[in-house]
């Protein structure tokens, strides 16, 4: 076999909070994204106590997908999309997060979106929680460190599973759940909805929150399979392969331990139990997780069908922590790789790293994979002919698709689909910028919210159109 399978899912990816806008329309409640300010590659986003007058919150408007989804889906269909990875905003369905009855207006909105996708024969791939936890669940319950959120999430999942059981086949529970780590304040906020105060035991809080999300994910999988056994429900992690800074065995061991921090999440959600190395690490640190007797059984029953993951870069790691710095965006700790070029945000460009990642994950777990985020953030400029010639983006994606093809056709890795991130320009989650663009489609809006939001096709639009039509043969 030297070709990608005919039923391969080509598409693109967005999230509700980065594109929908209409943050207080249709009965929607505040999410954690709605109180996160704009930032830049040099100035991190800030989390405010509610909405503060005079602050700019780019997610409030996003790119107004809420009112323009038919136009946008039409453009995706013109590119030939087979699938569209998106998320449901929890706060459109349950504005506070703890209600017993859902907000019907929010439910109807996604009915319309799924109907429009079906009209164009585009398969939705839906994330239940993509950095959009209801803000009320932070202020009144403390976020995911509180076990009560498990039942709230289960009610939300059951509601949308029932409502869309005939419109959505592919689901994911939590987006990049592994960003909930104690060394990243923004990661703990986005992934775990955790407010961190001075003196807090970050590692203990984070461990409890992650456990609660594991149980919530498992219960969602069990619930979804009961409602429609044909559902394919996956997890989603941010995956980065790490390379030792030197061949010093100390660096190799440091890399192994660093990668375990991410493998931990997939180990639990795919294998259904805590790995030995994490149990040992918790024991050494004195971390004690509050559990219920049924948790172990739930984790075993609620394992996922596939692994969805994001891949943007590889990283270098060392036993010498002094050489490691926090990257632009404040989520990922990095070291420079002298063998690779980087984006303007300091992210290493490493197509071979994607092939390495696919092989590592498939070898470790043996279940299907889906590349649900991959992309090139850049400052796009119009040329004299009125077109954005985003050749750097095309080169990046071309090289990564070629690496994916090699993993499929030469290595035998089972890959379900490929959905590049931000297929239409949207607000960056890590920096809050609009001008850090990923899309095939340009949206007229700048970092301060100015612009009329009109859409224009970039050069990459027509390139990706040919890629999909040829099933990856024409790159």
TrEMBL record:
<dbReference type="InterPro" id="IPR033132">
    <property type="entry name" value="GH_1_N_CS"/>
</dbReference>
<dbReference type="Pfam" id="PF00232">
    <property type="entry name" value="Glyco_hydro_1"/>
</dbReference>
<dbReference type="GO" id="GO:0016052">
    <property type="term" value="P:carbohydrate catabolic process"/>
</dbReference>
<comment type="similarity">
    <text>Belongs to the glycosyl hydrolase 1 family.</text>
</comment>
<keyword id="KW-0326">Glycosidase</keyword>
<dbReference type="GO" id="GO:0005829">
    <property type="term" value="C:cytosol"/>
</dbReference>
<protein>
    <submittedName>
        <fullName>6-phospho-beta-glucosidase</fullName>
        <ecNumber>3.2.1.86</ecNumber>
    </submittedName>
</protein>
<dbReference type="InterPro" id="IPR017853">
    <property type="entry name" value="GH"/>
</dbReference>
<dbReference type="InterPro" id="IPR001360">
    <property type="entry name" value="Glyco_hydro_1"/>
</dbReference>
<dbReference type="GO" id="GO:0008706">
    <property type="term" value="F:6-phospho-beta-glucosidase activity"/>
</dbReference>
<keyword id="KW-0378">Hydrolase</keyword>
């Amino acid at each position: 076999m030297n070709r990608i399978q005919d039923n391969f899912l080509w598409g693109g990816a967005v999230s509700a909070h980065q594109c929908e806008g209409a943050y207080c329309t249709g009965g929607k409640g505040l999410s954690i994204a709605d109180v996160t300010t704009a930032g830049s590659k040099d100035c991190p986003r800030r989390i405010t106590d509610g909405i503060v007058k005079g602050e700019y919150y780019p997610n409030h408007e996003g790119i107004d997908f809420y009112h323009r989804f038919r136009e946008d889906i039409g453009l995706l269909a013109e590119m030939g999309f087979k699938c569209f990875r998106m998320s449901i905003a929890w706060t459109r369905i349950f504005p506070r997060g703890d209600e017993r009855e859902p907000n019907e207006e929010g439910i109807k909105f996604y009915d319309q979106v799924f109907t429009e996708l079906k009209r164009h024969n585009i398969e939705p791939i839906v994330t239940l929680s993509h950095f959009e936890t209801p803000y009320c669940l932070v202020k009144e319950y403390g976020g995911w460190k509180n076990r009560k959120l498990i039942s709230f999430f289960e009610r939300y999942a059951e509601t949308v599973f029932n409502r869309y059981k005939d419109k959505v086949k592919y689901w994911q529970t939590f987006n990049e759940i592994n960003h909930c780590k104690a060394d990243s304040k923004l990661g703990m906020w986005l992934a775990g909805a955790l407010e961190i105060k001075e003196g807090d035991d970050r590692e203990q809080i984070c461990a409890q929150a992650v456990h609660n999300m594991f149980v919530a994910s498992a219960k969602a999988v069990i619930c979804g399979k009961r409602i429609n056994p044909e559902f394919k429900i996956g997890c989603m992690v941010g995956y980065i392969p790490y390379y030792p800074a030197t061949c010093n065995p100390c660096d190799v061991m440091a890399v192994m331990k660093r990668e375990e921090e991410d493998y931990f999440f997939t180990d639990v959600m795919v294998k259904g139990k805590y790995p030995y190395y994490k149990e040992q690490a918790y024991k050494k640190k004195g971390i004690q997780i509050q559990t219920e007797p049924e948790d172990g059984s739930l984790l075993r029953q609620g394992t996922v069908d596939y692994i969805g993951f994001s891949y943007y870069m590889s990283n270098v790691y060392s036993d010498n922590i002094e050489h490691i710095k926090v990257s632009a965006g404040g989520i990922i700790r990095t070291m420079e790789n002298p063998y690779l070029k980087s984006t303007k945000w300091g992210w290493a460009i490493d197509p071979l790293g994607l092939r390495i990642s696919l092989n590592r994950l498939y070898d470790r777990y043996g279940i299907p994979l889906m590349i649900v985020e991959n992309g090139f953030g850049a400052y796009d400029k119009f040329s004299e002919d009125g077109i954005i010639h985003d050749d750097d983006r095309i080169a990046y994606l071309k090289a990564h698709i070629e690496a994916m093809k090699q993993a499929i056709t030469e290595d035998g890795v089972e890959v379900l689909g490929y959905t590049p991130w931000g297929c239409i320009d949207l607000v960056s989650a890590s920096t809050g910028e609009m001008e850090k663009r990923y899309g095939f489609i340009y949206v007229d809006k700048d970092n301060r919210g100015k612009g009329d939001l009109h859409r224009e096709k970039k050069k990459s639009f027509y390139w990706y159109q040919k890629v999909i039509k040829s099933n990856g043969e024409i790159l």
